[in-house]
Amino acid sequence: MSTRSFQTAAPELEQQLEQDIAVVMQAAFEHHRRQEFDQAASHYTAILEAIHDHAGAHYHLGLLLVQTGRSAEAWPHFEIALGREPNNGEYWVGYINALIESGQNEAARAACELAQQLGVCEPALATLLALMPAGNTRRASTEELNEHAALFSKGEIEASLKIALRLTTHYPSHGECWRALALSLQRLGQYAESVPAAEHAVRLLPDDLVSHMLLASGLCAIADWPRAEAVCREALKQFPRYAELHRMLANSLTATHRYTESIDSCRRAAALAPGHADIYGTLGTALLGHGQNEEAETAFRRALELTPMDASAYTALLHCLMHKVDRDMAMFRAEAGEFAKRHETPLRAQWPRHENPRDPSRRLRIGFVSGDLVDHPVTSFLLPAVEHLARDNSLSLHFYSNNPASDSVTAQIRGHADGWREVFGLADSALAQQIRADGIDILIDLAGHSGRTRLAAFAHKPAPVQVSWIGNPATTGLAAIDYYLSDRFVTPLAQFADKFSEKLVFLPALAPFRAPENAPPVNELPASRNGFLTFGSFSRMSKIGPAVVALWARVLREVPDARLVIGSISGQDEMNKLSAQFAAEGIDAARLGFLPRKGMLDYLEQHHQIDVCLDAFPFGGSTTTLQALWMGIPTVTLPGDSMASRSSTGWLSLLGLDAPFVAQDKDDYVRKCVALAADIEALAILRRELRPHCAQSPVFSAKPVADAASRALRIMWQRWCDGLPAEHFDATSPVLAESAERAADPQREPDTPVAHAVPPAKSDGRRASAKEMREYTDLFGKGKFEAALKIAHRLTKRYPSHGECWLALACALQRVGQHIEFASAAERAATLLPGTLSAQTLLADALRITRQFERAETHCREALERHPESAALHHSLGGVLQSMGRHAESIACFRRAVALTPDNALAHDALGVALLEYGEREEAESALRQALALAPTQAQVHSNLLFCLMHKNGLDAASALAQYREFATRHEAPLRARWPKHANDRNPSRRLKIGFVSGDLFNHPIAYFLLSIVEYLARDTSLALHFYSNHTVSDGYAEQIRAHAQGWHPASGISDAALAEKIRGDGIDILIDLSGHTGRNRLVTFAHKPAPVQVSWIGNPSTTGLTAIDYYLSDRFVTPLEQFAGQFSEKLVFLPALAPFKPHPHAPDVNALPALKNGFITFGSFSKMLKIGPEVIALWARVLREVPHSRMVIGAIVAPEQIGKVSALFASEGIDGNRISFLPRAGMAAYLEQHHQIDVCLDAFPFAGSTTTMHALWMGVPTVTLPGVSMASRGSTGWLSHLGIDEAFVARDEDDFVSKCVALAADPDALAMVRRELRAHCAQSSLISADSIADGASRALRTMWQRWCDGLEPTHFEVAAHGANAPTQPVAARESDTQPAAGPTAAAATSSETANDVPAAIKPIRFVCGTRCSREQFWNETALGRTLKPYANQPDVQLQLFANNTRGLSSIYNEAIEHAKQDPAILVFIHDDIWLSDFFWKLRVRRSLTRFDVVGLAGNLRRVPHQPSWAFVTPDLRWDERRYLSGTVGHGKGFPCHEISNFGPAAQECKLLDGLLLIADSETLASRDVRFDEQFKFHFYDMDFCREAELKGLRMGTWPLSVVHESGGAFGSPGWREGYERYLRKYGS
Q: Low complexity bias located where (predicted)?
């Protein structure tokens, strides 16, 4: 008897244990049901640890063991279960089945008899008895084989395998069982295991074609080519007309390089099965191997025609094209792009949101995917790198092998793996799912477009960061792959940045190459013995085309005594082919030699015959080049425009051998060969020294390459954690390396200083002359920084010990934005000039810019020990500390700098900016005013003061405008007399040159808003976009913006006058400022009036004060005209929204309202410290006092002194510190996740949130805001008003602010509902719609230009979201920009005479409905009436009801259209049996008309002859295919509905719409004269209306709008049939 641990416990403890056991058992059942066997077994085991003889746990654990093929372990568990419950029939069945499965048939038979004796009545017992084998000659029944077939056909392969294994055990002489086993094994990718099973099948079923096929395919898969060939030939004797056997024979022949035979077999297969795509793929491979590249391309294209969605077929074509001599990279990139379009684009919408922890310093899981983890060229590079990467404890290496074969190299790699999975045969989607489940952080492709690639799995984006490396020298074309690892010689960035869809990352070498073990020694130069030079090649035949032969023949003609030896020849046909080609070039066959393909050692020894190798093109050598170099033989190569042509170039350049061996063109190729032949002695010396030279290089040394690869992976991960896009970078740089390594190991000791990366020069005392330095300074002073940089590079090479040269180089590098190199040069300068302050401060700046803050601080403090009175160093240290968030310390440094140089305006300015960031606004203003007093003409100082004043509480609008006007008086007024007369062509319809000026065109909120706008504006062919970047930083955002630019112009360092002159010279028509009075602005350039029309937008929420800037782009919620017309020097132009918000692609899901779990409400803020003044804290404290159990969470505050300051302010207001908590500044995804702790955000004032407010809204968190008199105070107000939730969250005054917070705290259920629906609501709003806002901006720019062409002054106007051709709206006469229109007539934009100008955004929504009910019954009984009741008093919602209606719907709908001519509205034609269950239906209705002219809930993308309905395609009412249907409708009585019909994706353009609800702008219908045909009363009116709309050029589509329809259609009724006949008579078929 077992002893239970709880027997002596109290009864309540027993009861608790039983409850716990039940919970665990239920969890185990759930895991078991989902086939999560490990988790289920763990739960069953846990129960058995508590209760050793728990019958249910033993029984289910036994079942699990049988299911997972461990029957021998299962039956003891069943025996224990039966010991507890001997009469349980299920237990007996499980027990007997386990005995049978474990081969204990006699025991199973005895158990059956015992169960029957005990009286167990279980029907399954008889079945089990029947299953027991009587002898080996038995055959499986049809039912048993069908069971396997059914599972196999349903894709349940694992289950089918278990059945097959059981069948072969029970029926070992039945061939069909072995065939079933081979079939399941191969489908699971277990090809090696399938071969014995297939051999049994062939032996038992010698006439069975399928068995022969399975055996042949298994042998091909494991690369047992001789046996595969033999099996195919034997099978072909029986089945000579079976094409697939011929194809597999061809495969085996190609693999053994017997290309001619292979081609013959393929052609035979193609004749038998001309529509079989795989045959053409195999033929293409054989032709390419034989060097018949054009025919190969034709074959691959034929394969692709037959199976256009076969990724492997497209990969084969791309690999073939890499060998094509006359192809250009644009063509190849286009083909790669087409691959992505077919195999990636359809998947992008389903790309997962990766949940990998965004911790930049944690251990990373690195996945490698390859089909070549065997003895293969790829592993000769990979293995040495893996050996070193495996020693990096910060990485965990996982391999996904896409090859059923394995060998000793496989074992070596596997020895370094933390995880290994065999994935051959696994579907791409399943592989992607597995990779996600494995939690891979960075996934590396090692195949590219080569054999056994799994790029289609990468297209699913299974890992957050994806990389391609080594496998194939070309872009993959996939946006899902972020980076390509290379080196700067193989793919120079300037040449290849636009040839790769991936971002290029440079290692010290592309990959480390492991020299072959036991390689023969290098011999003496053969030419020294022979008296003539022997050229050689070991290129594959696929690379040696006619153009290559022609060039080699030229070499032989120019070196008449030379010979050419060609290796890797597979047969006589290849020799004959090449001999004929050389003969055609006039080369005697006696000068040619051929070497057969050999094993590695013999192949290396063949190099003893060769003096110089000749490279092929356009696909050059790589592994062969390195093997030749190791054997002392250089290669003459001819790089082209592809990476494939530059592999040899890369290796030779890394070895410093590019000058003599890398040719510029074909003539130079020949010249180099002639020169080598003429200097045998030099070649002999090189041969002797080449191997030791290689051994010392990074090419043959794994550690530096592996270390750089590790750093590169960490940098990629850091960028992903920070929410940054992929970017080109160089992982070889020590500066960048150090920052990356610090992220991985904060405790790491500092590395060798950067300067040590530059080989120390011997002190030779040489110095650059004054003339040489003047040449540099002249160019630098004129702003010709690139030219100055070339001079500086030359000087540092010539005078490596002259510190001034390094200082010059550092300054030039800083100006051109090469910050990594800048830091390296500055370090060198500081080392050589320890007493020169400018060198020390420059290094401090360099270290700060490259974000090496700790080193920068150390450097500054060390320098200050030598120069304690240096204001510049105190200033630099202050800047470093400020960047580190140590504001109090930074302010102390700036105060010291001011004390040392009290007349230095920049010192006061820096102090003022630091004080402002710290929230000390009054003192900041004082410091900035002092700076301006010292430098009254310093525009940036003046701008800093104005930016500070935007945070000043109590500053009235008139005083603020006066301050901005003062800026214009100082910096614009002196220039006005010299404003140019613009000669721009006054053609209102021509293409316009639009210039954007900004210092924030990089990873910055401005670029974040701008990029989505630019992407749309760039498609507008009437605009040419030019950018003037006032910052030296360039990153992924800059590159994305630049990709859309007609012109990109660096402006940093150029004077305002010179920049204005350049803008004029560029012919800019409209110039847009994106900075306002923020850092790096160029407002003084605008003050020169370089363009006819000038605009300010996005950069700063205030006027610029300049009359030179004509317009300010805003929206009517942020800057209502009647309030702000007098606050701006510019005229206000209203867009559909101020700017589009682009949600972060990795934003976490919205969680449930925290208050529901916590029991109290949590307020929050992510405002910067400079916005949180005492008055803000005082108001927030009032809220906390009025909501006594609430908490406050404050994010984005990092410095302890800031936390202390805020805590003290709350304490002074009587708020306990326990109610206040702080969150650290975090990367984007982590910052968004912090919103999971917050119920409601509280805004700051007078400078409110904007981006932070939208981030919070996207996370389901609304913000309570208090707008004031400035635009800066209304950022949140604008967003909330656009979303229609201003009433709840926009306060009138401080009392209302508190009242709103109290009301929200009192209704957590309402807050929870808002939280659930807010993201979806945002997603449907114009705030997320870049196309709508960009379209509005485009039309606004055209209106501005039209006015300038007409000689009109700027004026306020509005462009509404109203389609591409909507007119712009003067707004001077609008009664109110902030209140909804009171009724239909009040919605007019100007006056009642201009009704046609009413934009859809402010028209009322008018429901048009016919009902058989009375008006009273409609409101009380119909679905629509009850839905609309809550909106009865809202002026923007109207109802045109036709009560007691007996007229046809077409008739009343037409009446509504006529009525709307005088009273425009958005018309919603709707049935009365529809519930509107969408809280945001108004917004969705308006939003839908920005996309389509006529909108419905459901529709069809096509129309076919005789179509009787939008959904049916045949008169017998057969549904159309789902791919043509669109939209969603609920069905049932009320809400929630009983059923949802999801026809297909919404927001699709359609040909036909369901008439139960149709939306259209009345003016659109009137202007196009679109009406309903009144002969169709209740049926087919919608079909006819859609055809009429199509004829009149209207766009129709569906839109997501939640409704419930209470009835179905009356299809087939007499009225319906009559309508159908009328419809057919009108339109025919």
A: 1378-1394
